[in-house]
Design brief:
The chain is mainly alpha-helical and 169 residues long. It has a single domain (2-168), classed as Four Helix Bundle (Hemerythrin (Met), subunit A). It has seven helices and three strands, in the order H-H-H-E-H-H-E-E-H-H. It has helices spanning 2-19, 22-25, 37-57, 69-73, 75-91, 118-143, 157-168, and strands spanning 59-60, 97-102, 112-117. Helix 1 runs antiparallel to helix 5 and helix 1 (2-19) packs parallel to helix 6. The longest helix is centred in the C-terminal third of the chain and has 26 residues, at 118-143. It starts with a helix and ends with a helix.
Length: 169
Amino acid sequence: MLHTSAKELLFQLDRLILDCKSGDFAKPLPELSGSTFGQHIRHTLEFFICLFEAKSDGLVNYDQRKHDTLIETDPKLARSVIESITDFLNKNTTDFELTFEANYSDEEGRDVSMKSSFYRELSYNIEHAIHHMALLKVAVKQSLRYIELPKNFGVASSTIRYRVGSKAN
């Protein structure tokens, strides 16, 4: 189920990139506080990249992502990254142990570590992606109105279920 959810979100991001005019991909948008559409895509994808790179050494640290400006400026590269992440998810369907490491301080060297797992981090990546997709949805509705989004783009599955249940009552 996690894999299906993650791949569906990645598919939606891929369609979004495909539908975005190339000049708009790297254009700063006021709805994103001057950030670009591509920066939010890159940020979201780099969390998934950190997770699949953790397969080799068992350590996931999202603070150490690369901030690859090519992903945020080149829609074709961003789509290729999505394809690679999807391929990784297709090949890695079982859970495995990981160590999660992060620094929640403004000071260097204050890292904390804890046990985690691929499934736990994949669920985090799903929630993180939905959050950024919700931000992208605001930008699309304001500045990129030519893009048609799926009905539940950027909406958590729990919210979708809640809305369905509320309408039934």
